């Protein structure tokens, strides 16, 4: 009898989270995420490590695409079990999977047209990785599970979900795995958030684990204090209002947009900024905000206090949620200063590009970044100080103020990850460090070994460990 753990994603990289637990009687997948790094995307098309029909269950830590985005493919290829997650994660995953399926089809159609123009065939047929119909078939398999209560998910395997503090509904997951006389507690961090951030609860301490799989996205660095956000945000908004320009904010739809709205709500209430009109121009962010409205039980103490005062942390007078293209286009005809929050967060597509096109050459306007900008994206190019930029086929001079606020990250840094691990009362047998670039993961593994004296390693893609 033995218990095996193998790593099929987020191993020495930061997306595609996927871990397989095998016993003599059961097979369970923890997360089923999409690879998003440009040089790893081909892995999304590869066969799964085991035939999907042989899996008993999937456990989902949270609803980000790099953790849930390959579920439609898994179901299409034969998985017929349940996907266990918290109720809020199920709600967010529905939104994310349908949006991803639409993008998969659009990308496939774009490649098809391009290859036809160029008179060549691509390395594979221009088919979508999966379709909206595939996503629709996966969604009914999402099975809501409670927090802090063991749930039987497969023969010999129970799952317990613990608050991770990352995004609404996000969890770390403990698996109690028993095979004959062997029984092990395996703890998967998912993505660990930060303490004392708005709206979501702090990460929960998990006291027991024989083995730990922990993320390391920011395992080699420390974040700037998040308590500096309101002061910096107020200064930027007031300067832009004095200049008579708009504040355009590229933002991610899940958590980042809602956290920004929370800060704007507080600043307005405290009269630290003028009561400007605020537009959230992202259909996906609007749908995710509706999930926040349905799950106030997941709010932290400060957010619940706002509700008791009759103020919702994700809403205030003057906030407009734009659903239609008509509503989006009408924003650019408004006179005076407005705050425009739109996706995508790295300016790679979506409605933000239209607002950039209308504001990038206006000296009175401000482009304010609140999230990480990957190398080569339009957002990164703007932050690096380019004098002009090409948007929708037209080159425009960059005259707007370009600025960035740090501290909005939903991932814990090195010390916060160690704080979470330190809740384990007695040292685990081994800590596997995943979900980070090689440098970050190796640095954090060495840090944990130094600070706690625990055995650590950084598994590679495809590695397999027997948990004896």
Walkthrough of the structure:
It is a single chain. The radius of gyration is 23 Å and the shape is globular. A hairpin with a 2-residue loop joins β17 and β18. It is of the alpha/beta class. The model has no long low-confidence stretch (mean pLDDT 93). Strands 6-5-4-3-2-1-22 form a 7-stranded mixed β-sheet. Strands 7-8-9-10-11-20-21 form a 7-stranded mixed β-sheet, with helices on one face. Strands 14-13-15-12-16-19 form a 6-stranded parallel β-sheet. α3 packs antiparallel against α4 (132-138) and α3 (87-118) packs antiparallel against α7 (283-294). The protein has 13 helices and 22 strands. It has 2 domains: 4-221 and 410-466, Ribonuclease Z/Hydroxyacylglutathione hydrolase-like (Metallo-beta-lactamase, Chain A); 226-404, Rossmann fold.
Short description:
The protein has helices spanning 65-68, 71-76, 87-118, 132-138, 229-243, 256-269, 283-294, 301-308, 325-330, 352-359, 378-383, 414-421, 438-452; strands at 4-9, 18-22, 27-30, 57-59, 82-85, 142-144, 151-154, 157-163, 171-179, 182-188, 211-215, 247-250, 277-281, 319-321, 338-342, 366-369, 388-391, 394-397, 401-404, 430-434, 456-457, 464-466. With 468 residues, it is of the alpha/beta class. β8 (157-163) and β9 (171-179) form a beta hairpin.
């Amino acid at each position: 009898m033995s218990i095996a753990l193998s790593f099929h994603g987020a191993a020495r990289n930061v997306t595609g989270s996927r871990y397989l637990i095998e016993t003599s009687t059961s097979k369970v997948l923890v997360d089923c995420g999409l690879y998003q790094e440009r040089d790893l995307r081909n892995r999304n098309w590869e066969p799964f490590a085991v035939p999907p029909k042989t899996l008993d269950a999937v456990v989902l830590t949270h609803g980000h695409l790099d953790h849930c985005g390959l579920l439609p493919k898994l179901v299409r290829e034969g998985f017929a079990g349940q996907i266990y997650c918290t109720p809020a994660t199920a709600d967010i995953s529905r939104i994310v999977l349908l949006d991803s399926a639409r993008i998969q089809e659009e990308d496939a159609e774009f490649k098809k047209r391009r290859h036809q123009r160029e008179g060549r065939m691509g390395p594979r047929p221009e088919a979508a990785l999966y379709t909206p119909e595939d996503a629709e078939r996966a969604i009914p398999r999402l099975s809501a599970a409670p927090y802090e209560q063991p749930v039987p998910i497969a023969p010999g395997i129970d799952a317990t979900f613990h608050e991770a503090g990352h995004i609404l509904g996000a969890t770390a997951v403990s698996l109690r795995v028993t095979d004959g006389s062997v029984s092990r507690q395996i703890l998967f961090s998912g993505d660990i958030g930060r303490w004392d951030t708005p709206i979501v609860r702090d990460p929960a301490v998990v006291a027991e684990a024989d083995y730990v799989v922990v993320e390391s996205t920011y395992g080699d660095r420390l974040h700037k204090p998040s308590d500096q956000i309101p002061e910096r945000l107020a200064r930027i908004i007031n300067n832009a209002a004095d200049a008579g320009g708009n504040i355009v904010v590229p933002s991610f739809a899940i958590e980042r947009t809602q956290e920004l709205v929370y800060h704007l709500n507080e600043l307005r209430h405290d009269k630290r900024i003028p009561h400007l009109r605020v537009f959230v121009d992202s259909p996906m962010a609007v749908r995710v905000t509706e999930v926040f409205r349905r799950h106030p039980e997941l709010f932290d103490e400060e957010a619940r206090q706002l509700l008791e005062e009759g103020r919702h942390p994700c809403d205030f007078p003057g906030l407009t949620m734009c659903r239609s293209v008509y509503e989006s286009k009408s924003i650019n005809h408004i006179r005076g200063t407005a705050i425009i929050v739109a996706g995508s967060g790295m300016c790679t597509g979506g409605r933000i590009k239209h607002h950039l096109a209308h504001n990038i050459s206006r000296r009175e306007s401000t482009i304010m970044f609140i999230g990480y900008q990957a190398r080569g994206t339009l957002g990164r190019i703007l932050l690096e100080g380019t004098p002009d930029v090409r948007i929708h086929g037209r080159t425009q001079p960059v005259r707007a103020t370009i600025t960035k606020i740090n501290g909005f990250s939903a991932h814990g840094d090195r010390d916060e990850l160690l704080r979470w691990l330190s809740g384990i009362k007695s040292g685990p047998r081994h800590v596997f460090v995943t979900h980070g670039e090689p440098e970050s993961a190796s640095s954090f593994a060495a840090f944990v070994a130094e600070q706690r004296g625990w055995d650590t390693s950084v598994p590679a893609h495809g590695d397999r460990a027997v948990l004896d």
